[in-house]
Amino acid sequence: MKWSLIIANLRRLIKDYKLLIGVFSAPVLVVLVIATLTNQSDSIQTIKMGIVNHDGGELSHQMIELLQQDPTLSINVYDREQAHSEYMKKRLPIILTIPEGFFEGALAGEAIVMNVIHVESVPGDTLIRQMEQMVKNLLQEYLVERSTEKADLIHTEVKPIRFVEMPFVNQPNGFMTISFIITFMMFSIIFLSQELIDLRNKHLLFRMFASPNKPSQLTGSLMATLFVFFALQAVILFWLGSIALKAPLLTGNLTGSVLLLACFILLNLSLGVLVMRFCKNNSMIGIWANIIILPTGIISGILVPKEFLPDFLNQIAFLAPQYWVMDGLQKMNASQPVGNILLNMGILLLLASCVFSAGIFRFDKIVNR
Amino acid sequence: MRNKKIDSFFTIVKKDLKVFSSDLLVFFLLTLVFPLCLGFFYGLMYQNILDQEVNMSPLTIYHYSAASDPAFQAISHTFDTEAFSFVQAIEVESHEEFQQLTAKEGVVGIIFNDSTITWVNKGNQSLEKRTVQNYLQNTVREINLTNQKQNLANERFENFNPSQGSSVYQDIMRIQQTSFIQKTPAPVIHSLSSMAFFILSTFVAFSLFITTNSLQEREKRLFLRTFATGVSRITLYMANAFSNFMISFLLCLVYFLVVFFILLNNPVSLVQLLLMVSLHAFFISSFRAMITGCCRTDKGGTTLSIFFLMFMLFAGGASFPIESFGEVSVLTNLAPNYNLFKLYENLALNQAYTGLQWRIAVVMIPSMIMLLAGLAVFLKREEI
After folding, report:
1. What pLDDT, on the 0 to 100 scale, is given for residue B327?
2. B40-58 burial, b if ≥16 CB within 10 A, otherwise e?
3. Is B70 exposed, middle or buried (0-12, 13-18, 19+ CB in 10 A)?
4. Which tens digits make up the pLDDT trace of B268-316?
5. How far apart are CA B288 and CA B146, in angstroms?
6. Nearest partner of B118 among B80, B85, B72, B82, judged by Cα
7. Which pLDDT belongs to residue A39?
8. Which residue in chain A has the smallest CA separation from B107?
9. What dihedral do alpha carbons A261, A264, A268, A269 form, nearest 10°?
């Protein structure tokens, strides 16, 4: 790496408005939109459930209301045919059927049950347990309510147990915004590859190569210049993302987060060199960059939430560099010491050095292509 | 004269096939491998939506008990049952240790006291946390009710007459011990896997791009030279449409043979497959014929094709599990790619073709219209 080369590259790149727009404007806009849209803290996955109510009594309606209040469930009431049809079309994973005269029968001590059918892929046992508890509470409360001993029960000496939720202000979940920032940072592969291909196609790389500079010095200087750009891009994205999210994206151990992101930028730049090796012209860069970014993004769990991915993909998430970045940032946000992300940084640096070595291997042949 | 027309027709077809075969590798990658990879990725991405999968992630809960009531002990034991298999409950010996462990962000804990159950959630809400919280809230109601009845029974113990009073207590205890919900065996759903769904639907949409390079020839005014050799406009147009039919038939057949017999390991009826592929190829060739007839430049043809592709990807549901979001719209039912996909789906599931004639018609009629519309425009624009 040579300072003269870095300064020359910096001067040239500052004048490249296409690069500046590509690196800064689009990511900033998208991150602002995503952060603004996701600054609500508590949204949870719901399970769709259909209820076929043949009972129609007061208690059955009360039960449906209680289930509708449960934020983990998305409840709809259907008739039997509709529910069956929705189930068969894989749009309704669980159906609860309340038989005719269920609550009356249950109060009278008859052997009567509600039926549940569910696909294997939902936690049926947990839901049945919850509903069982709900039905029992409803029946017992109803018995007490209509009992002649109600007044005695109210005046009984027993002090009721209270359920207390300890107050805690949840910060908005910045996962999605960080995911987008990581993805944009990874797209910087394209810019370095474009620069290198432009230099190669204009034979500037060949001329530089004819000078006493080594291949690693040439690419290293360009990488150092772009490192400055991408570091600046990361700072701006995290800063603006935090403002739009109304919560800091990087908290806890900031030093660790900065070190981790620096390693990630180095890896992206190395990937840029490797992509340049595969591409004869600029039009191919997008395809190669997507071939690298999309699959790794999917398996790392940053493009698609982990709970939506099959188990085997979650098990191979460690193969994606984005996984190590996200994992490290989460550790740092939880105020863990830098020592806990040494493995994350080590893996990113190891990947960077392997990819860079592959990228500049027999560089003279690429220069002459 | 008739023989000459037929000769010209087949000569053009032969030429088209030769030109196409020279770029076979690129076409193979773009129209077969690319949609296959895309279908694979879409399949992975939407697997849990299509399979309605809800995975309960492991949840660690620290709990500390300062209560003497054995009912609280029972609550923590509930976490060992199948219903709460996602919970890893860790008992903490002292309140100080509990405070220390739950000080970190994202941690969940429960404190049991004789008068309160305190739920500590120092993080965002999740399905797992909310499920446990619901259970605890219902349990509190249950314990309170039981305690009240128990207390009343104790107060009256000396005068207690089971035949007269406290039948409510007995009823409550009966309800407590009865099971009111029964799991019944679910009917088997015959449907395509997420991967199969997208491998089929993505290809049907992207197959629009299977074509000869006739538009480039038109742009380079090679058609005029062809006319100069005595070939009529109808012969040229129809020969080109036939070449497209042949090429798309072969590529689609290769794709579906590989998909059904190798990748999905789901052998289908060959006769039905050949008929389906013929219908599919007819649709592609009609579309390409229309593009050739209506567009003068390759760029114009690509733009129009991309517009149709977008329609198929979104309205036709080739890029997302459109059926998972409710009944499909009329627009989707009119999209030829959706209907072709439904026919292939039927084939893959070995279901009878009863009631699917209208889907065949929805593909055939627009195809005929496109073929004839393209011819009309072509005849008007390519005046000799």
Report:
1. 79
2. bbbbbbbbbebbbbbbbee
3. exposed
4. 999 999 999 999 999 999 999 999 898 887 777 877 887 888 888 888 8
5. 75
6. B72
7. 63
8. A334
9. 70
Residue of A nearest to B328 (CA): A89
Residue B56's nearest CA partner among B85, B24, B22 is B85
Contact B104 A334 (CB under 8 A): yes
Three-class SS of residue A222?
helix
- The span from the CA of B324 to the CA of A87, in Å, is 11
By the 8 A CB rule, do A177 and A34 touch?
A: yes
Q: What percent of chain A has pLDDT over 90?
A: 28
Distance CA B353, CA B229 (A): 47
Whether residue A163 and residue B174 make contact (CB cut-off 8 A), yes or no, is no
The chain A residue lying nearest B82, using CA atoms, is A125
Identify from B46, B54, B328 which residue to disrupt to test chain A contact, counting A C-beta atoms within 10 A and taking the largest count. B54
Q: Which of A109, A304, A311 sits opposite B45 (nearest CB)?
A: A304
Contact B44 A298 (CB under 8 A): yes
Complete DSSP assignment for A255-306: HHHHHHHHHHHHHHHHHHHHHHHH-SSGGGHHHHHHHHHHHHHHHHTSSS-G
Which element (helix H / strand E) includes A345? Answer: helix A342-360
- Which residues does chain B have within 8 Å of residue A310's beta carbon, measured at their own beta carbons? 44, 47-48, 53
Q: State the ipTM, two decimals.
A: 0.72
Report the alpha-carbon distance of residue B290 to residue B305 in Å, rounded.
10
Dihedral sign computed on CA atoms, order A331, A333, A338, A343? positive
Average pLDDT, chain B: 84
Residue B380, pLDDT > 60, answer yes
Most confident segment among A35-49, A91-105, A155-169, B109-123: A91-105
Nearest to B283 by CA among B233, B229, B338: B338
Q: Say if B54 is an interface residue toward chain A (CB within 8 Å).
A: yes
Interchain contact, B175 vs A310, CB within 8 Å:
no
Residue A111: both structure tokens together: 């052997």
Q: Do the chains contact at A90 and B179, CB–CB below 8 Å?
A: no
Backbone angles phi, psi at A91, to 5 degrees: -115, -5
| Least-confidence region, from A350-354, B13-17, B123-127, B331-335 | B123-127
For A50-54, A283-287, B19-23, which range has the lowest pLDDT when averaged over its residues?
A283-287
Q: Which residue in chain B is spatially nearest to A154 when comparing CA positions? A: B148
The predicted pLDDT at position A101 comes to 92
Which of the 8 DSSP states describes residue B220?
T
Whether A119 and B52 lie within 8 Å, measured CB to CB: yes
Q: How many helices (H) and strands (E) does chain B have?
A: 17, 5
- Over range A317-331, report the average pLDDT: 91
Q: Is the pLDDT of residue B158 over 60?
A: no
> Which of B77, B119, B159, B181 has the most A C-beta neighbours within 10 Å, making it the best mutation to test the interface with A?
B181
Indicate whether B161 pLDDT > 60.
Answer: no
Region B324-346 average pLDDT: 89
Give the integer Cα–Cα distance in Å for B379 and B181.
Answer: 71
Is any Cβ of chain A less than 8 angstroms from the Cβ of B145? yes
